[in-house]
Structure formats: C-alpha cells, structure tokens
Specification:
Blueprint (H helix, E strand, L loop, with lengths): L1 E5 L2 E9 L23 E5 L25 E4 L2 E5 L6 E2 L1 E4 L6 E6 L4 E2 L4 E3 L8 E9 L6 E9 L5 E7 L6 E3 L3 E7 L6 E2 L13 E2 L2 E5 L2 E2 L1 E5 L3 E5 L7 E9 L2 E2 L3 E6 L4 E2 L10 E3 L23 E7 L17 E2 L5 E4 L2 E12 L2 E7 L7 E9 L2 E2 L5 E4 L1
Parallel strand pairs: 5-12, 14-24
Antiparallel strand pairs: 1-2, 1-3, 4-7, 6-10, 8-11, 9-10, 11-12, 13-15, 15-21, 16-20, 17-18, 18-19, 18-22, 20-21, 22-23, 22-24, 25-27, 26-27, 27-31, 28-30, 29-30, 29-32, 30-31, 32-33, 32-34
Amino acid sequence: MITAYAQAAPGTELACGIVPRDTNPEIDTTIQFAVTAGAKYLIEIAATGSTANDGGYTVLSVITGGAPASISVTPATVSIVAGSGHTQQFSAQVSAANTAVRWSITPPIGVISTSGAYTPPASISAATSVTVTATSFADPTKQASAVVNVAPSTGPSVSLVATANAQNLTIAQNTWIEIKGTNLAPDTRIWQGSDFVNNQLPTQLDGVSVKVNGKPAFVYYISATQVNVLTPVDATTGPVQVQLTNAGVAAPPMTALIQTNTPEFFVINGGPYVVATHLSGAVIGPTSLYPGATTPAAAGELIVLYANGFGQTTPAVVNGSVSQSGALPVLPVVTIGGINAAVQFAGVVSPGLFQFNVTVPANARSGDNALVATYNGFSTQANVLITVK
C-alpha cells in the first residue's frame, strides 16, 4: 500500500493506492494528488501481507507538473451520406498547455485529416457507425470520441424533365428547364460569381451536372428535389436523353422531346400573372398582387414582357456565354385579350431570357386579359394573364 499525507496534517490522507499481490517481478501502482509550492509531504509504503513473500523492494518515482489533461470532442454525434462530397469538422477541447491531438477513426471507413475533418467514403453497402477519436499529445492516456453515422447513398433519381414555367414536357435549345426527383444534390443554392470561369456559365455546382443529348447544360439552381438548368445550344430535334449526375453517381437517363422552340412566358410565383414591367422597371400586375409595388399596364402603353424557349436568334447565341444578345429573325405575334399588340422588339437579352417590347392595344379591356405569343407555329402556355387599366 502507498499513501500520501501533508507533513502539516499527517493524519489526513491525500491519496492512497493498493499494490495487488502478484507473482510478477514488477508491479506498478500510481497515486495522484495536488501539491502546494513550499509544502512538505509524507509518502508511506506498507506491506500488509502475512508472509515473508509479501515484502520486496520498492522504487518510488515522483513526477510533478500541471493538472492532468482532460479532453472532449464536439460534435458528439453526426450523420453523413457516403459519396455526398460533404466533410464533417470535429474539434477537440484539451485542458493542457499542449492542446494538440492525434485524430483516428475506427473502423477505417472514410478519412480523418490531421485537423479533424472527416470525409466519408464514396460508397458503402450498408449503414455503419464510425468512431472518431482524439488522443492528447500532452497525455496519451487521455482520449475522447465522437460517432459518425454513415448512410449509403441511394443515388439520384429523376422523375420529371420540363420547361421551367409551363411545365411543358417538350423542351428546346437554350431554354430554362427544371429537373425534379430525389437525391439530386448535396445542398441547396444558386450559382454565384465564383462559379463562372472564363466568362462561361457553370456546367456543375457542388458535383451536380446535367447533360442534354450528351452535351453539358448550364446549372443555375440545385437542391435535393429540383435542379434548374439552361439547355445547351443544339439544333437537334426529336427524342434526346437528359441525365443528371450527383457526386459522380449518374441517375438513370430520362427521355425528353426537343424541338426548335418551346415558347412560354415567365410567370410570377407559378402564375397566372406574367413577369412584365413598365419602362420604369416597376412590376406590372393587379394592385393586390404586391400592394404598393405592382400596378396595371395602361392601354396604349409600351411595356416589357419576359419569356423563355424561343430558340435561336440573329446573331446566333453563343453556347454557355455569360453574355447573350440577339433578335428573333421574325417577330412573334402577341395578343392581349385576343387583340393583336404591336411588338417593337423580341430577342434574348441574357442567358435564356427573352424580352419583348410590346404596346398594349388602345382598346384592351380593363382588368385581367389573356396573354398569348405565337412563334414559328408554337404558342405560349394557356392561362397567362396581364392586368390592364
């Protein structure tokens, strides 16, 4: 038995350790207690056995230093999907002068960096739990752990390919479309400045890409259930394959019909009101749509309408360029409330965005009017309205 006392209070034990009876040539035990600078301490070593073999030689080693290290890891539990492209950063809190730790994982599924960033494997066959452990360099006997629940990726699945506004199942070149399904992307965001390289629209966001007829589309928006892209310039007509890839895993391709034009108006919040502005830039609509912000168009007023899917222009649109401009070779026929409206300009003004400068007929009916554009034998979607006063 080994016992420690303060010399000033020899009757009060500070720490006590039992050395077990054993036949090994060396038996170790440790006691630990706080000390005060300048104070004196007594260490008592006693053999409590009843035979001569219970004694022996004793070597006493005294080590002084700071308080023993303690360690914790955050977060304690996380979930992550294999092949998602995500990493999980862990942090270790160490109560010692040396706060460095060594990171390890068990079982060795995925990778842990020296800074504590865990990356799951590209794929796993079944869900599993990985223990992330931080070991103190100051005291290697001190460890703390966290658990990562790694789920297998089921891969992306596409259920719908359609134009972005009218949900038309027939698409066209240089047209905004939406792709719906599950597991389509690891996160939710739109493109941003850093995604543009050499004045080209991005063909992937966070590992999500789309090909239309084998050609890269331009990715604007990603989420787990919807991805919006601008189709590439491609004069092909007929059935084509649309395929989305997420984190290197391709969804089964969907077949879509592509034609030269699939005209549609952009509408506000799914419709029925068209996206249109006065020349001042103020939004056109009934005053109740956005009180204080929207106002009707006036009979005889020159207004601006915005549309999608009208195809190639003159000069021709450059595939994937951040700057697109050009007029339609023939002006579309636009009617408001069944009355022809004079079209002064119709063309693309930015990637996939068509602008029509149109004069509201002087005899247009006050109130909501049906809006239709016809071009190259195709008409925009039904039930689009514009409000006239």
